[in-house]
Specification:
The complex is a heterodimer. Helix content of chain A is 32%, strand content 14%. Chain A has helices at residues 50-60, 122-129, 146-156, 163-167, 169-172, 183-193, 203-207, 220-224, 231-247, 250-255; strands at residues 21-30, 35-44, 80-83, 86-89, 103-106, 113-115, 118-119. In chain A, the strands form 2 sheets. In chain A, strands 2-1-5-3-4 form a 5-stranded mixed sheet. Chain B is mainly α. Chain B has 2 domains: 23-108 and 117-178 and 217-239, no CATH class; 186-214, no CATH class. In chain B, the strands form 2 sheets. Chain B has a two-stranded antiparallel ribbon. In chain B, strand 3 (151-152) and strand 4 (155-156) form a beta hairpin. Classes of the chains: A alpha+beta, B mainly alpha. The structure holds iron/sulfur cluster (SF4) (2 copies) and FE2/S2 (inorganic) cluster (FES) (2 copies).
Chain lengths: 261, 248
């Protein structure tokens, strides 16, 4: 591991400012072929988040540190990383949660590294293309009631940070990208399937290439979602029930009438 | 750009004390494991769960009344056992605790073929709804037992056991009717809650069940310990260790 770079290598905090508390940030530096964590000392002020520290390093220590970000407000979903082994948004993870510890910042483990903290998440966009888009019964505009769109609106809060995809053990530990779409796309499918005006049917996709059966409802996606979407409870389990209606319920099959819509 | 600090930092108290990752799976293994061992002892080494007008939930419905006397609890406990084993909440807990699949979020797993719930036998968990139907039948019997627990030879009365049995059946009802399969059945399977008159009623039901469902995990644990406590109490009454205080 490289020697810690200290503050004297960088610009000191503004003149007259009180001395800030230093913390050690251990940031992954490298690309898809090789890399290692390097330690840096960072002055930490109240309310500072991990992304602030990375920005401070870029400005004061090493401008070549790569990280993806846009909003610094937990809205754009760009700054996902593994922070002390746990997936989180760099702009929402406060440094004072780690007082007395080294803060290890690594790129998301599930996706291929491009450089430093930046990963290639394009697999997700390929998955998105495999899902039949919204197919309304009649062209917009149409009237819908709030209670009919409540469920879908929870899922539309998604900021596509892909932290759920990153933490999902099917993708992260078992490289299941060829078998399972991942939790982000389960909420996408749930949103469309529960839409009162949608006419398409994605249940066969779920049971087949979507790989819903690979999810073992261990709820890590729900635990890390910065939008607090109940991914497992409100999307995945209801979808498992819908798949069971079709594939595991002979009684229902017997009585299946036209979709009640 | 982040501005370096101008006041001493950090000031906010760290958020709670974070337990190490292995605490939760270990607690699951200990709790479910010891309940499992206790159940085996209770089911295979006892021929009755009845004490006067009290009946242990392990022995309900009372098959001895129907002439079955060979390990009577076995004829009964498979329903709650399979109901809980296929419950979405317990699945999470045992996949984490017993299978380490994953033991905790973002923990490395041993490398091996992972099939999730796509293959036998774990795919059978998709049949959970049928265990729900049977569990509802069992709940009806338990309510019947509970009513009887308030009827003593000399008429209506309240013993500590009656209250324990009442508490137990209430907890079990919350657990059973907060089930995800039940939530789907009453309305979750619909795409439109306003399109038909019946769908409006089902929306009301679904909303209520959804509210219970958000605490399904808590109901699962509390009701399991409720069954345990009720059974221990009645077992101690049967063996004469305890005396049931009559309150009314
Ligand atoms: S609940 Fe399913 S989708 Fe979510 S992290 Fe676990 S396995 Fe993945
Ligand atoms: S569901 Fe949550 S964790 Fe997953 S991509 Fe959307 S916002 Fe991120
Ligand atoms: S920078 Fe936009 S979510 Fe963090
Ligand atoms: S009992 Fe837990 S989900 Fe049905």
């Amino acid at each position: 591991m490289a020697q810690p770079q200290t503050m004297d290598q960088a610009a000191a905090p503004e003149a007259g400012a009180q001395q800030a508390t230093d913390m050690t940030l251990s940031v992954f530096r490298g690309d898809a072929t090789a890399g290692e964590e390097r330690e840096y000392r960072v002055p930490v002020g109240p309310g500072m988040v991990v992304l602030d520290a990375v920005h401070w390093l870029q400005a004061n220590v090493d401008s070549t540190i790569a990280c993806r970000w846009n909003c610094k407000a937990a809205r754009c979903g760009s700054c996902s990383a593994d922070i002390n082994g746990h997936p989180g948004l760099m702009c929402k993870t406060r440094l004072d949660d780690f007082v007395g510890q080294v803060v290890h910042v690594r790129p998301m483990r599930t996706f291929p590294i491009i450089k430093d903290l930046v990963t290639d998440v394009s697999w997700n966009y390929k998955v998105a293309k495999q899902i039949q888009p919204f197919t309304p019964a009649q062209p917009a505009p149409f009237v819908m009631y709030q209670r009919d769109v409540d469920r879908g609106q929870e899922f539309r809060r998604c900021i596509e940070c892909f932290l759920c995809q990153n933490v999902c053990h099917v993708l992260r530990e078992h490289s299941g990208m060829d078998r399972y779409f991942g939790p982000r796309f389960m909420i996408k499918i749930a949103e469309l399937e529960m839409h009162p005006m949608d006419t398409a049917d994605r249940v066969d996709l779920l049971a087949g290439g979507g790989g819903l059966g690979f999810c073992n409802i261990t709820k890590c996606c729900q635990e890390v979602c910065p939008e607090h979407i109940h991914i497992t409870d409100n999307a995945i389990i209801p979808l498992k029930e819908r798949t069971a209606d079709r594939y595991w319920d002979p009684i229902r099959r017997l009585f299946r009438r036209r979709r009640t819509g | 750009m982040a501005t370096p600090a101008t006041v001493p930092a950090p000031q906010r108290a760290p958020k709670g004390w974070k337990l190490p990752w292995w605490v939760e799976p270990t607690a699951t293994v200990v709790a479910l494991g010891s309940f499992g061992l206790y159940s085996i002892w209770e089911v295979f080494f006892h021929t009755t769960g009845r004490f006067g007008n009290y009946l242990s939930p392990f022995f309900s419905p009372d098959v001895t009344a129907w002439g079955i006397h060979v390990i009577p609890a076995v004829w009964v406990v498979w329903v709650p056992l399979l109901f809980r084993a296929s419950c979405y909440y317990y699945r999470k807990e045992y996949y984490r605790g017993f299978f380490a699949d994953p033991a905790a979020c973002a923990r490395p797993e041993r490398s091996r073929v992972y099939r999730g719930e796509t293959r036998f036998p774990l795919s059978l968990n998709n049949l959970h709804r049928f265990m729900l139907y049977l569990a509802i039948v069992v709940i009806l019997f338990l309510w019947d037992d509970t009513v009887r627990a308030f009827i003593f030879p000399n008429g209506f009365g309240v013993g500590l056991g009656s209250l324990i049995m009442l508490g137990n059946v209430i907890l079990l009802s919350y657990y059973t009717f907060s089930c995800h399969a039940f939530r789907h059945l009453v309305g979750g399977g619909l795409d439109c809650f306003t399109c038909r008159a019946r769908a409006v009623t089902r929306y009301g039901l679904w909303s209520r069940v959804s509210a219970w469902n958000s605490h399904h995990g808590q109901w699962a644990w509390i009701s399991m310990f409720g069954v345990w406590a009720t059974d221990v109490y009645i077992r101690l009454l049967i063996s004469g260790v305890l005396h049931d205080p009559r309150l009314i």
